[in-house]
Amino acid sequence: MTLRAEHLRWTRGGNLVLDDVTIEPAVGETIGVLGPNGSGKSSLLRLLSGIGRPDGGRVLLDGADISGWRRNRIARRVAVVEQHADTEIDITVEDVVSLGRIPHRGVFGGDAGSDAEAVRKALAHTAMADKAQNRWHTLSGGERQRTHIARALAQQPRELLLDEPTNHLDIRHQLDLLTLVTALPVTCYIALHDLNLAAMFCDRVLILDRGRIVGFGAPAEVITTDMVSRVYQVRAQIGTDPDRGYPVVSFRPDLPDQGV
Length: 260
What we know:
The chain is an alpha/beta fold. The chain has helices at about 40-50, 70-75, 95-100, 110-125, 140-155, 170-180, 195-200, 220, 225-230; strands at about 5-10, 15-25, 30-35, 55-60, 65, 80, 160-165, 185-190, 205-210, 210-215, 235-240, 245-250. The longest helix has 14 residues, at about 110-125.
């Protein structure tokens, strides 16, 4: 068992944000959370992380409702990489990654040896070990994202939530980042805008539209011309990758009628 949602309903400011959202991934599965702006992607991740509390339904971790859990208990299992995580403090990469060990520290601190080993492994796994002493302000966008993923890995989670982690990255770094994340031995929810990236890297995709699930399944089953038209209100042509078989989306601008 792993992290799942059961009939989640959430309102903010009198507006319905999520409506009857249920999702149960397999252990180790990568779930892409897709939908237009305002569809509820970030809100769903917020509830799954325990930061927000639903108005109805439950978030379950190994079958247990997390609503009464303390934050540090959840954080020992579930790590979050936020969309706009940043800091004005000029600290080192190693310092940022070490923040991931906070949930494992008690009143009298933690095990320094275990903390150091977890940080070392996280830096190595994200190819940031050689930049451990670099200052935050010297990092590129891709390096900052890898540092935040390393911080999440230092928590030693079994579930990982990422909110649009490829924003503001060039194509190479988008591919590198998602290759890294989807190879991790964790259950992963990734909110994405890019349908092609979701099709390439996710085991299944969840489509949200105005807070409701309108599709959930393998990318080839869910990412269709009809779905793109209904949810995103644009025309698309769907092809198939010749080697791996995932759908490839080409968008088609509406052209004026040329007559006959």
